[in-house]
Amino acid sequence: MFNLLTRSRDALVADFAGLTRDRKYGEGHVEAGRFIVIDTGGITGEEQGIDAAMAEQSALAIAEANIVFFVVDAKAGLTSADELIAKLVRTQGKKTHLIINKIDGMNPDVAAADFYRLGFEHVHFTVASHNRGVRSLAEDVIREAIEEDQSDSESEDAGIKIGIVGRPNVGKSTLVNRLLGEERVVVYDHPGTTRDSIYIPYERMGKRFTLIDTAGIRRRKNVKEAVEKFSIIKTLQAIDDAHVVVLVLDARENIVEQDLHLLGFALDAGKSIVIAVNKWDGMNPESRSEVKAELTRRLHFVPFVNQHLISALHGTGVGNLYKSIEEAYDCSMAKWSTNMLTRILEDAVLEHQPPMVRGHRIKLRYAHQGGSNPPIVVVHGNQTTALPDSYKRYLENTFRKVLKVKGSPIRFEFKTGENPFANKKSKLTPRQQRTQNKRNDVSKPNRLGKAAKKKQAPRQR
């Protein structure tokens, strides 16, 4: 239902109960305007443990919504859980539409007989798996709601998209709740709590942000459930969609290869990065020194990335993340003039010239910007394909230092100008043609034999 209303595939779909755990937001469109859909987890009334936290998220979604779509299963019939939810939405005083789903192969009147006992005025029939009745539901109900509230304006820009990524159980959801200042996503002391990528738009000090809480990624050999495989795909898609990636590490565990794989994926995607070392509270000075030494040793290849030692549970150092996030975003979106980039290139070449290739010096003539997020610097010259990687790293470090780029990678593209006369034959003047012919005659080998030479020799008297 969520995917059909938003015309997307953002919500995971699988044939077992309890898949959805957090509130998931999505944007839909009708002719009258735009609307926001909130997908929630199921409520049974007998939740314990993580299911209780999931049910609490569903109750918060009901309180937040303007309209409630109460979806029931026609094949299962009226259940005690349906009666519990009906009572819950009535106490909230929300305008509720009863949606009787899965009526394929059934008489709608017969399917709805038991559900009329719930006493809802607005009743609709759908088959969400085949997209029957959902489009008319959106067009009629949501258009009416939008027209009733003319003060609703079109949604604004999502602002800076911040992707929170890391291994399972490192505290990503706790960090999201701390950044938002509310219990927005389910937090439970068990790996794999978050299964989908949750987009949360909000505003802080007049600036718009969108937090993306993602599922933790384990090593491939440990991934066995199909749902976890889809969750990993959603996480990788969220990294591609984010402007800034906050990589959350566990201070009480050493940096493992999986952390470096995630960092490498974000760098390859060209995303700005901020590293948050979580669970810093309660560690003794000796352990903290070991963690700092390990960070310096394993992360030496990304000296431009800011590192923060935080405690998401208690909020220590979390507020400082915003400064690094905004700095990394501004650097990734920066615009530089061709004149400035060319001057930096000339100074770099003057300080340290490119090497010789086959007796000729590589020449780098000028540079200009080729894009943003990440910033791309295009360098033009000759024989640039022979430029060694060490010199490319030298240029990257020089540009990063002069331009003061923090948190964002810089990509370089090297282009070699083509010779315009490579495939053209020069036209010779008559004098040049005669000279060329003489040279060709002189260079021709003499194929006459000895007998012919004696025959041609003049007689001597």
UniProtKB/TrEMBL annotation:
Signal peptide: none annotated. SMART domains: AAA (SM00382). Pfam families: KH_dom-like, MMR_HSR1. InterPro entries: AAA+_ATPase (IPR003593), G_ENGA (IPR031166), GTP-bd (IPR006073), GTPase_Der (IPR016484), KH_dom-like (IPR032859), KH_dom-like_a/b (IPR015946), P-loop_NTPase (IPR027417), Small_GTP-bd (IPR005225). GO terms for biological process: ribosome biogenesis. GTP 1 binds at D39, T40, G41, G42, I43, N101, K102, I103, D104. GTPase that plays an essential role in the late steps of ribosome biogenesis. GO terms for molecular function: GTP binding; ribosome binding. This is GTPase Der. GTP 2 binds at residues 166-173, 213-217, 278-281. PANTHER family: GTPASE DER. Keywords: GTP-binding, Nucleotide-binding, Repeat, Ribosome biogenesis. SUPFAM superfamilies: P-loop containing nucleoside triphosphate hydrolases. Belongs to the TRAFAC class TrmE-Era-EngA-EngB-Septin-like GTPase superfamily. EngA (Der) GTPase family. It comes from Oleiphilus messinensis. NCBIfam families: GTPase_EngA (TIGR03594), small_GTP (TIGR00231). Associates with the 50S ribosomal subunit. CDD domains: EngA1 (cd01894), EngA2 (cd01895). Residues 450-461 have a biased composition (Basic residues). Residues 416-461 are annotated as: Disordered. Residues 160-333 form the EngA-type G domain.
